[in-house]
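Question: what's this shape?

___
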Amino acid sequence: MLGAVAGDIIGSQYEFDMSQTYDFELLNDESFFTDDTVMTLAVARWLMETSLSSDELINSMKELGRQYPFAGYGSGFNNWIWSENPKPYNSYGNGSAMRVSPVGLYAHDMQETLELAYITAAVSHNHPEGIKGAQSTAAAVYMAKNGYTKEQIREVLTALFGYRLDTSLEQLRPTYHWSSDCQQSVPEAILCFLEGGDFEDSVRLAVSLRGDADTQASIAGSIAACMYPIPEDIALKCKKCLTQDLRRIMNDFEKFIDER
């Protein structure tokens, strides 16, 4: 859980900074959480406290989203949060992938992972690419948590979702550009995990790609944290960036997962 939150906070300052290199300042007084963290924790709360219905998920996302109205939601999703009866709007934005990592930590098997990831996406991002982005991220988290090797993760995600994960970041960088579409940001975030040597390296690679930095670092961080420890100084600084309410949800979810 903290991996997704830390990736979001680390990437938060650099989402629209196209000059970023690998050796950027990791955290400082300007670091903050965004909608990625808020919605990830809304999904975590849904997994802990409800019967896992779509209506309960919508309520959890609306409630927490309205509590943090300036977290940086896209216009379509902001309208969704404030709607009295929100409906999916055929989005393929990476908002579906940025919030799904708790599913990979919660699920008992791959089938449950994919089913729950579908629910978390379909309430708003019901375009096939939006569904795919959520399912592939959740699947990667599930596999990393359960001892799959990176090569196995690469092979499974390629077989299930058709993502091209056989390129390298070095090949990708010269032509890569900012995009919040799942199909142009999720595979790249997964590649940052696959090439990363530890948690910090994975997140630095994601931010220095110069794309949708907070979301791609959140996705890469959520997977990497299942395979590598998060350095203590990063963990402490990122926890301090959260409000008491958000920190409580995160701590409760981590305890909930440990006891399952």
User: Anything to note?
Assistant: The chain is about 60% helix and 0% strand. The mean pLDDT is 96.
